[in-house]
Design brief:
Elements (H helix, E strand, L loop, with lengths): L7 E4 L5 H12 L3 E6 L12 H10 L4 E5 L5 H15 L4 E4 L14 H29 L2 E5 L13 H21 L4 E7 L3 E2 L2 H5 L8 E2 L2 H11 L10 E3 H7 L37
Parallel strand pairs: 1-2, 1-4, 2-3, 4-5, 5-6, 6-9, 7-8
Helix pairs in contact: 1-2, 1-7, 3-4, 4-5, 7-8
């Protein structure tokens, strides 16, 4: 029996990149997928749509629905949750993957950009989590994952408001986990050690192929995270390399975008430039 047979995952930001990769990876192991994103129609500069994600899920033998949802809108979030339950009868996993990014020194942050990252990151994660919690509590099972980082204070310069929004997701996750442990519901945060090749890294010129890994590394890390029993799992802000190592996966070469180049730890993103990968143990 597949690890996630009979389970249902609701994934925001699922039209491409990390969200689409997680959807396909979960579907391969029996999970039904509710793929949500702001737009349904193709984007002139961004490859991938919700319908493409549904098609890829079906190609691996899975079942999925596409749900158009602006996660900043409370009514649309509730409608997304309702549509998922109407189709599949439950929600076992929520992946708060939708995100907005902007970097600049504080004095150069437009208010509009500040509001955008706060709304798409922490506010949306709050709205989506709040909406699924009654369902998860009633069924006595649930795992909410924030695509957000551990605390790296040295990474704050030039990314302050963005980091506030992403760390806000981490804090919401901590609260959700502590408040719902009695009901068999847990929360986690997950973040990459190296940059991931996505529309953001490409369109914002955040390095090049030699500095990136494929979205598959976060998809595989997500599967290992969701395989944990939420009744006995408590909050941790995981790095992808860490959770893979604990699952016995230490060869990360398949995730390279350039086969013979190991991407460095993030320095232009959230990990401080002098941060070094720990020697993770599988204990």
């Amino acid at each position: 029996m597949s690890r996630f047979e009979g389970r249902v995952a609701l994934i925001t930001g699922a039209s491409r990149g990390i969200g689409a990769a997680i959807a396909v990876a979960l579907a391969k192991e029996g999970c039904k997928i509710a793929a949500a994103a702001k737009t349904i129609e193709p984007h002139p500069k961004l490859a991938g749509t919700l319908h493409d994600t549904v098609r890829m899920v079906e190609e691996v033998g899975g079942e999925a629905i596409a749900i158009q949802c602006d996660v900043r809108d409370e009514a649309q979030v509730q409608a997304m949750v309702d549509a998922t339950v109407e189709r599949f009868g439950r929600i076992d996993f929520l992946l708060n993957n939708a995100g907005a990014i902007f970097w600049a020194p504080v004095e150069h942050w437009p208010t509009k950009k500040f509001d955008l990252v706060m709304d798409v990151n922490v506010r949306a994660a709050f709205l989506c989590s709040r909406a699924v919690l009654p369902i998860m509590r009633d069924q006595g099972f649930g795992h909410i994952v924030m695509m957000s980082p551990p605390e790296f204070p040295a990474a704050a310069p030039n990314k302050g408001p963005y980091l506030v929004s992403k760390l806000g997701m981490t804090m919401v996750g901590r609260a959700v986990d502590a408040e719902n442990a009695d009901a068999g519901v847990c929360a986690s945060a997950l973040w990459p050690v190296a940059a991931i090749r996505t529309a953001a890294t490409e369109n914002l010129s955040m390095g090049d192929l030699s500095q990136w890994r494929t979205p598959a590394i976060l998809a595989d890390a997500t599967l290992e995270l969701l395989a944990k029993d939420p009744k006995t799992t408590r909050f941790h802000a995981w790095l992808d390399e860490e959770i893979l190592a604990r699952a016995g996966i230490t060869d990360l070469t398949p995730y390279r975008c350039v086969a013979d180049v190991e991407p460095p730890p993030l320095s232009i993103a959230l990990v401080a430039p002098d941060w070094e990968r720990p020697e993770w143990t599988t204990a």
